[in-house]
């Protein structure tokens, strides 16, 4: 805060009345110009003070307004849909989806972007912009209009791709097929299989291939510390999907919330149970022919509570197995597409050498091979680079880490 500037001294001059006229005149001249100087200084100080007063007044206004709104009732959550040029924004209130055009202060406007979550009051004035932490719910739900994965990037599981397309894509694209025959398409599809085999990829590819909104939520995100939070998230998830039909809800690592009831009865377990019950009730209350499909994935099928597999819930199970020889060859080819690979590289041989590797492990193998090429000052990746990479990965593995694929899957 700036202090008031010091005021210049008042000019003072004693003039002897007995001085000769010309000297007195000179002295008066000098005094006059001192007065003019001081006057100028004071004028500019006054101007500054007025500016400052204006600023302070604005601030008081703002603080008063903020105070007023803070004293007011609770705020609603909305999403900024669009920021217009004339200091206005379009916000969409969560829950009832009401869209409104509202004024915002220039100060707020600077910080607002389309897509921000904000708190609005009864008259839809934007009060605060919610930061990432306040906005944990939106954060844990990842919405993308179109994930970037295509079926062409998934190797070795063509049969599973076909099944998923039938169960998810077709009911969305051609619901009348199911109506004509008079059957309900599967409610939910559960992808299960060892880690790193392409389950998450597959779910994303389906969403890419349809025009559906893809809402992804990790099961671990649904496991919340606070009572009621997990089940509210599940409710939000389905509500969001209904708002954005056609939509695909993808719950990855569903085992986090749907494991069999354990003996321990801690409150944490009870909360996980509640979350799962909410999921089941959302699924039960679902019109399966609607425009929302549900996909879940897990690599801990053995742990799942069978309740989620009942008809009307996850009633289509698709096992995504570890890749076989042909599959591995395809995956190798997919992940080396963008690489500068020597013609001599024998993928068939590499597929044999990588028996037991998951898709994810093959992907890191190709990167590792590229590293060997760089280390050898080459721009082209040779067969031996792949072999070196395999050797390195196996050395690393044999230390203390149990190779992930197949660990849970005997
Ligand atoms: N069948 C496959 N074809 C091509 N790439 C694959 C395949 N499977 C896995 N990958 C590679 O491994 C990465 C991880 O795959 P993904 O996340 O789909 O595995 P996941 O089955 O969901 O594993 P987890 O059970 O651990 O979640 C992918 O990004 C991809 O690069
Ligand atoms: Mg996954």
TrEMBL record:
Superkingdom of origin: Archaea
Subcellular location: Cytoplasm
Gene3D superfamilies for the chain: 1.10.8.60, Nucleic acid-binding proteins, P-loop containing nucleotide triphosphate hydrolases
Positions with biased composition (Basic and acidic residues): 9-22
UniProt binding sites for ATP: 196-201, 335
Pfam families: AAA, AAA_lid_3, Prot_ATP_ID_OB_C
Region (Disordered): 1-22
Cellular component aspect of the GO annotation: cytoplasm; proteasome-activating nucleotidase complex
GO molecular function: ATP binding; ATP hydrolysis activity
InterPro entries: 26S_Proteasome_ATPase (IPR050221), AAA+_ATPase (IPR003593), AAA_lid_3 (IPR041569), ATPase_AAA_core (IPR003959), ATPase_AAA_CS (IPR003960), NA-bd_OB-fold (IPR012340), Nucleotidase_PAN (IPR023501), P-loop_NTPase (IPR027417)
Complex formation: Homohexamer. The hexameric complex has a two-ring architecture resembling a top hat that caps the 20S proteasome core at one or both ends. Upon ATP-binding, the C-terminus of PAN interacts with the alpha-rings of the proteasome core by binding to the intersubunit pockets.
Function: ATPase which is responsible for recognizing, binding, unfolding and translocation of substrate proteins into the archaeal 20S proteasome core particle. Is essential for opening the gate of the 20S proteasome via an interaction with its C-terminus, thereby allowing substrate entry and access to the site of proteolysis. Thus, the C-termini of the proteasomal ATPase function like a 'key in a lock' to induce gate opening and therefore regulate proteolysis.
UniProt family annotation: Belongs to the AAA ATPase family.
Full protein name: Proteasome-activating nucleotidase
Origin species: Natronorubrum daqingense
């Amino acid at each position: 805060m700036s202090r008031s500037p010091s005021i210049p001294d008042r000019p003072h001059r004693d003039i002897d009345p007995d001085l000769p006229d010309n000297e007195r005149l000179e002295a008066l001249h000098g005094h006059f110009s001192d007065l003019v100087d001081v006057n100028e200084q004071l004028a500019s100080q006054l101007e500054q003070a007025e500016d400052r007063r204006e600023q302070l007044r604005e601030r008081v206004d703002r603080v008063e307004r903020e105070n007023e709104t803070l004293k007011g009732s609770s705020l609603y959550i909305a999403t900024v849909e669009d920021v217009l040029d004339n200091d206005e924004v379009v916000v969409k209130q969560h829950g009832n989806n009401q869209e409104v055009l509202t004024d915002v202060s220039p100060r707020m406007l600077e910080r607002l972007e389309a897509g921000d979550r904000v708190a609005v009051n009864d008259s839809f004035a934007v009060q605060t912009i919610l930061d990432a932490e306040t906005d944990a719910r939106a954060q844990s739900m990842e919405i993308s209009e179109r994930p970037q994965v295509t079926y062409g990037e998934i190797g070795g599981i063509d049969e599973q791709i076909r099944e998923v397309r039938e169960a998810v894509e077709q009911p969305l694209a051609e619901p009348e097929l199911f109506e004509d025959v008079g059957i309900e398409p599967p409610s939910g599809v559960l992808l299960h299989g060892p880690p790193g085999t392409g389950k998450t990829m597959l779910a994303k590819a389906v969403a890419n291939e349809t025009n559906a909104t893809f809402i992804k939520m990790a099961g671990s995100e649904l496991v919340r510390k606070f009572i009621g939070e997990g089940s509210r998230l599940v409710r939000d998830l389905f509500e969001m999907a209904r708002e954005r039909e056609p939509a695909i809800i993808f719950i990855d690592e569903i085992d986090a919330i749907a494991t069999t009831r354990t003996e321990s009865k801690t409150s944490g377990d009870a909360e996980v149970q509640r979350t799962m019950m909410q999921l089941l009730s959302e699924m039960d209350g679902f019109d399966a022919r609607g425009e929302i499909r549900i996909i879940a994935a897990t690599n801990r099928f053995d742990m799942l509570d069978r309740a989620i597999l009942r008809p009307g819930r996850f009633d289509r199970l698709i096992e995504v197995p570890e890749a076989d020889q042909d599959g591995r060859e395809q995956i190798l080819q997919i992940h080396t597409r963008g690489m500068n690979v020597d013609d001599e590289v024998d993928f068939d041989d590499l597929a044999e050498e990588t028996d037991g590797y998951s898709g994810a492990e093959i992907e890191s193998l190709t990167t590792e091979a590229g590293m060997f090429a760089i280390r050898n000052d080459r721009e082209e990746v040779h067969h031996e680079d792949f072999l070196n990479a395999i050797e390195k990965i196996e050395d690393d593995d044999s230390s203390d880490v149990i190779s992930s694929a197949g660990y849970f899957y005997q």
